[in-house]
Design a protein that fits this description.
Blueprint lengths: L2 E2 L10 H12 L10 H21 L6 E4 L2 H16 L5 E5 L4 H12 L3 E5 L9 H7 L4 E7 L11 H11 L4 E5 L18 E5 L10 E5 L25 H16 L1 H19 L5 E4 L10 E6 L4 H10 L2 E2 L15 H5 L10 E5 L6 H22 L2
Parallel strand pairs: 1-11, 3-4, 3-5, 5-6, 6-7
Antiparallel strand pairs: 2-8, 7-8, 9-10, 10-12
Length: 384
């Protein structure tokens, strides 16, 4: 049995998405900037995608900016906002357990003279709203908080944070990296006081290399890519029409049966947690039950290196991740695990399981059985 449990790294495309992307690439392949019929065909796909995403989030179509994925969306949100508002203030706020696309961009902005405050998190990986409130200043121009952590699945109180930010300083913009949250939760940016929101298609059974940034109408963000002036000058370059069409189709499909699919993932997640909890000295990181995301389980297995366990599972055709697959393929200590206070000897012994709508109970049972068999054996081996 082959079991793919690395869906936070990337997901299998829906068949309907793959078929649509292929058709747009091979048949409706015009440039949306062209004025002839083939260009109009392509432009219709882009327009329909904006309509679809706007409908799902209850926002305006003109507030959708297509990007190459979540990383670019995060970069535009952070750098574009910093450049647009630097005369008003140079203070930024984020957390210590963001995706590298945010943390590395914040580090870049610090080198450009911006002042960044990094919020701490509790043992479950959640921010403390009181600390956020204390951190907001008159010169705070942006707060960036991830919706769902990609390593341990902790869910941040985005709506509460948005209300607090606007109450404390109405001029402060609020950015949310929703790459792991979109398609797992219903997200309505305007109701949540979110000004900027990043999403990636390949996390929701769409194609790789495409995503979008929601930019609230009226929020000032400078472009960071210049050229032909596409997307009203906010992101120059010919639009990735096949990817954009696939993104919209995937979003439509993932939200079609959201409640049912999420309930089922929560059941499978709990099944996995209950099963591995029977194994001695295994710690589950993050929020328990429905306080956490429905698709992510982070396990610290004392006495077994994460790479060793990952490859042992791979021998059984069970595919997981040693933490996050997004920073690089080189082993490194996780900022997230350090932020939630994981013991030093467990930092290199943590693996991530991430589920999808395609995951089955039989696959979870097979995975639990494999772990029950191999963890004691690997611990015994590691002692010699």
């Amino acid at each position: 049995m082959q079991v793919y449990l690395d869906n936070s790294a990337t997901t299998k495309c829906y068949d309907e998405v793959a078929e649509l992307v292929c058709r747009v690439m091979c048949e409706d392949y015009g440039n949306p900037s062209s004025m002839h019929h083939k260009g109009v065909e392509a432009e219709q796909y882009v327009r329909y995608a904006k309509e679809t995403l706007a409908r799902l989030m209850k926002v305006n179509e003109k507030e959708i900016l297509f990007t190459s994925g979540g990383t670019e969306a995060d970069n535009i949100a952070l750098i574009g906002t910093a450049m647009a508002h630097h005369r008003r203030g140079r203070h930024l706020i984020t957390t210590r357990m963001e995706h590298p696309a945010v943390l590395q961009t914040m580090a870049y902005l610090e080198r450009q003279g911006f002042d960044v405050t990094y919020l701490s998190v509790d043992r479950a990986g959640r921010i403390r709203l009181q600390e956020l409130e204390r951190a907001i200043r008159k010169d705070t121009i942006l707060v960036s908080i991830m919706h769902v952590n990609n390593e341990i699945g902790s869910v941040q109180p985005i709506a509460e944070a948005g209300e607090l930010i606007k109450r404390s300083n109405p001029q402060t913009l609020f950015h949310v990296d929703a790459v792991q949250g979109f398609g797992k939760f219903r997200i309505y940016p305007s109701r949540m006081n979110v000004d900027l929101l990043s999403v990636s298609a390949h996390k929701i059974h769409g194609p790789k290399g495409v995503g979008f940034l929601y930019i609230r109408d009226g929020a000032r963000v400078n472009p960071i890519i210049y050229g032909g002036g596409q997307q009203k000058g906010m992101r120059s370059g010919t639009e990735n029409v096949p990817g954009i069409a696939g993104l919209a189709k995937a979003a439509d499909l993932v939200y079609a049966n959201l409640d049912q699919d999420v309930d089922r993932m929560y059941e499978l997640r709990q099944m996995l947690i209950d099963g591995v909890s029977r194994i001695e000295d295994v710690r589950v990181n993050g929020c328990p039950g429905r306080d956490g995301a429905p698709h992510i389980v982070s396990l610290s297995v004392r006495g077994v290196r994460s790479e060793v366990l990952l490859h042992a599972l791979e021998e059984k055709e069970i595919y997981v991740s040693a933490g996050s697959a997004c920073s690089s393929n080189k082993p490194q200590i996780s900022d997230t695990l350090k932020a939630i206070g994981v013991e030093r000897d467990l930092l290199g012994s943590t693996i991530r399981f991430s589920l999808s709508v395609f995951t089955t109970a039989a696959e979870i049972e097979y995975t639990i059985q494999a772990l029950e068999e191999m963890v004691p054996m690997l611990r015994k081996y590691s002692r010699h």
